[in-house]
Design brief:
Helices cover 37% and strands 28% of the residues. The protein has a seven-stranded mixed β-sheet, with helices on one face. The longest helix has 20 residues. It starts with 8 loop residues before the first strand and ends with a strand. The protein binds nicotinamide-adenine-dinucleotide. Nicotinamide-adenine-dinucleotide binds next to helix 1. The site of nicotinamide-adenine-dinucleotide (NAD) has 24 residues, from helix 1.
Length: 342
């Protein structure tokens, strides 16, 4: 087992946007982990996060961060389409890598990342953090215990409001819903089925976002037949009205030979009314007493603990490559109107 300097895993975060900031907050709190450097193309963002969380280096060039020999591990939280070059370079520089989902937006990119990881022999985890949501994790335990029989069918819906592609992400035209949203639920279905995609059919439509000048489809619906006979039906849109109480609308159903699971991850568990306004929130993650809690934190902690104790992370590069093949097939099937056989 590798012994890190002073027993500490020395850490860098590349991409300090919405998701990268969560990585920074969690790394800052973890024992035996030192946050050394933060990199973001927006210099002020890198600088303010470094100041707030005590990182020595605030950088705009990720190559400078990877050149820091003292860094053992990095999180990469860049826009979906920018994962390959930085991840390959990080692995070549001998760093352990926690790469945000999706692994990549093409099979070629995912293959290059897996090759680099094999050559480097360092750890690579793709952050499909929804596996750490209690409902999905508990379901996996009950499946593995044999309580539900064999899994046969998944229906999974994961939607966003229009705020996400129009305001939250400056780069929404550079990704597609299978990579941005469906990937979360596809990862869960594949994990439950223990099988790979064999045949993929899909449809998508471009109306609302196209009118707004954003070149990416409004919704996708994909049906995947797996090698062992299971079927998954995946659908995502990101044009729900912004008046919705949550950014996310989700529904997940698992039908087994002797069991059924129904998961609604965003119920209003907390109502709060003042004289001025009413709100209700799901509290799947967030901050309690100033510290991040929930599945986002748990997933990052898992990766750090794997580095510290020399274990293989739960979601490897090989998993990421298999998932990318299915997601890319959804995009291709929707574009061509033809079934894709893998
Ligand atoms: N695991 C999850 O549940 C989850 C949730 C949200 C987002 N994500 C993923 O995290 C990644 C980041 O998403 P986000 O919502 O934080 O996006 P974002 O746009 O908020 O952040 C991206 C950041 O990268 C920076 N950046 C862009 N190009 C750069 C470059 N060449 N060098 C350095 N910095 C650069 C931008 O300035 C920005 O701060 C995406 O791949 C997304 O799919 C994962």
């Amino acid at each position: 087992m590798k012994v890190y300097a002073d027993g500490n895993l020395r850490y860098g975060v590349i991409g300090a946007g919405i998701q990268g900031q969560k990585h920074i907050e969690v790394i800052d709190l973890m024992p035996n982990t030192s946050l050394i450097a933060i990199c973001d193309a927006q210099a002020e963002r890198a600088r303010s996060m470094a100041l707030k969380h005590g990182a020595q280096h605030a950088l705009v060039d990720w190559q400078e961060l990877l050149a820091l020999d003292e860094i053992d591990a990095v999180s990469i939280a860049l826009p979906d389409h920018l994962h390959r070059e930085v991840t390959v370079a990080a692995l070549e520089a001998g760093k352990h890598v926690l790469l945000e989902k999706p692994m990549a937006t093409s099979v070629e990119d995912a293959e290059a990342i897996v090759e680099a990881q094999k050559a480097a022999g360092t750890k690579l985890m793709i952050n499909w953090s929804n596996r750490w949501m209690q409902a999905f994790a508990k379901t996996k335990e009950r499946l593995d215990a044999g309580d539900l029989g064999d899994p046969l069918y998944v229906y999974a819906r994961l939607n966003n409001t229009l705020y996400v592609p129009t305001q939250m992400l400056s780069w929404s035209a550079n990704t597609r819903l299978p990579f941005w949203l469906i990937c979360h639920r596809y990862d869960i279905a594949r994990w439950y089925f223990g099988s790979e995609a064999k045949k993929v059919t899909a449809v998508s439509r471009s109306v609302v976002l196209k009118e707004k000048g954003i070149d990416t489809p409004d919704f996708y619906q994909a049906t995947v037949e797996f090698e062992d006979g299971q079927v998954g039906n995946f659908e995502s849109c990101w044009i729900l009205p912004e008046s919705m109480p949550y950014l996310v609308d989700s529904k997940f159903q698992l039908i087994c030979t002797s069991g059924y699971v129904n998961i609604d991850p965003t119920p209003p568990v907390h109502q709060l009314a003042t004289e001025e306004a009413y709100s209700h929130e799901g509290f799947l993650f967030g901050n309690v007493f100033g510290e991040p809690v929930g599945f986002v934190r748990n997933a990052i902690e898992h990766f750090v603990n794997c580095c510290l104790t020399d274990r293989t992370p739960m979601i490897t590069g090989e998993d990421g490559l298999q998932i990318t093949r299915a997601l890319a097939a959804m995009v291709e099937a929707a574009e061509t109107g033809e079934a894709v056989y893998l």
